[in-house]
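Next comes the chain:
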Amino acid sequence: MRACIQQRFHQLPHTRFSFFHPPPIHAYTVANVENPLAPTREDYAYANVFLWNTMIRKQAENGDITRDTPLLYYIQGLRTGLRPNGQTFMYLLKALVSGKNVNEGEEVHASVVRTGFASSEFVSGALLGFYVANGFTCKARQVFDEMPQPGLVLWTLMIRAYVCLTLPGEALELFRTMRGVGVMPDMVAVATVVSACGLLGDLGFAKTMHCFVEKSGIEVDAFVCSSLINTYGECGSLDDAYRFFRETAMKNVVVWNTMIHQSLEHNNLDLGRQLFESMPERDVASWNSMIRGFTNVGQYEEALALFHDMEISVFRPNTLTLLSTLSACASHGALEAGAWIHSYVDNNDLNRDGSLDSSLIDMYSKCGDIAKAVQIFEESPRRDLVTWTSIICGLAMHGDGKNALCYFSEMNESQVSPDEVTMVGVLSACAHAGLLEQGQGYFQSMEKVFRLVPKIEHYGCMVDLLGRMGCLKEAYDLIMGMPMEANEIIWGSFLSACRVYNNVELGEVAAKKMLELDPHDPWGRIMLSNIYAEDAKYDRSMGLRKEIKEKRLKKSPGCSSIEVNGSVHGFLVEDNSHPCYNEINSMLEKIEKLMN
């Protein structure tokens, strides 16, 4: 690394660094005139170090480190006689973080030690942040441990590093050590430790921290309040979160939004709605929390109604709003509403970078308009993993396996590597298209080519593919050889295949497994009863039907839906709860008479 830097250094034009050399100061001396205001050499040295630091800082801000690395500028400055200060190292490390230059960062670390700045808390903090950003937690801890007396800033940085790396146990242990040496936390440190409690799910320690804050006299701001509410919620105690929310006097819009978010995360829609209606002031995040919360719990009509309310309010929907709303349309099958939102996006120029394309593709696919989904994909300027995956899964969902696999080939040619979700779409496409050999090849390539470990969803796709092709023995062997236990979905798929190909023996095995997983679900019994009936084993078939009746087992009723004037109407079997039930029945009778 050192040799490469030196080679690049000698290729740099000499004039690039001419400002490092102090200009001559003989303008007055040639005339033998003293100027009391003339700058000293120390002044020139300070000015040049300032320019040196500015040059490195600009690189950090612009992120332009591909041609001339910051370390090259640093070495050139040393050769011209400049001496670095703390700011030099801080700017240098910040520039290197943006480029993930680990080896050069280690060179700077060595220079920090040689120049005696290792004892500087700010420089050590920059080093610690550099190592954490590049995933070298052990080296970051080494920097921390080498500080003889780390101050509060460094303690907080190291604790926060553990929290960001999802190591809450180490964060809390370090906090205990910090208190043991007598360092008193401030609001930032407290909020960080409280977040660690949430990650760990330790409600007891969260309450201990809450008591500590109240007794210590630490000023509680909105950041700490939000952290405590989040932590109580993440520890499973919405009651404690709401109790603290009511008691605290620090209630700005961020605290309100946090309480709403936790209410909806715990599926307490009434409390979330009550808080939203009671807010003294709202922002875009308030609306987004409500729309996302109702979408996540399946209340899609409420989510769409909230979006329309927001659209006529003073707040303009942002990308997060539209992502949640499009998800609601996709899950609800609301094509008209989704198309209207698409038009809203285009009219307001909210998708200039194509960040919404994958959501639009997903929405149109799930709402049945696969042609529109393909059109959006073809016109999209953004061909990233999510966009490719959306169109592949959409086509697979519509049974167009061949086109889905064509897009997958194009994706590979574009040097975009698939993830687990992509491979579910690919294997599902093979199942719908009946491509057994290709499906087996793609399944084997997951580990060999793409370094992806197959999950239960991928095994489920393969069982579905083998079952559709009548390879029941191979499907059963695959299930029994899975590294995880098969769930009711896999056994249900296998049982369906057994019925199609009337394999009584394997059908009995599948039905038995389903009964073990869910004794109260009648579906396995019904399927096995049908298999017996088709094999003329009527006694066994009637016996299962009788068992279902005696145990009063009921399967979930089928549901169909239709969108009319932007509203989605759902209908269940033997359901008469629709407000237009009588009118619908009357119209059906008229249609029946006309058909007869």
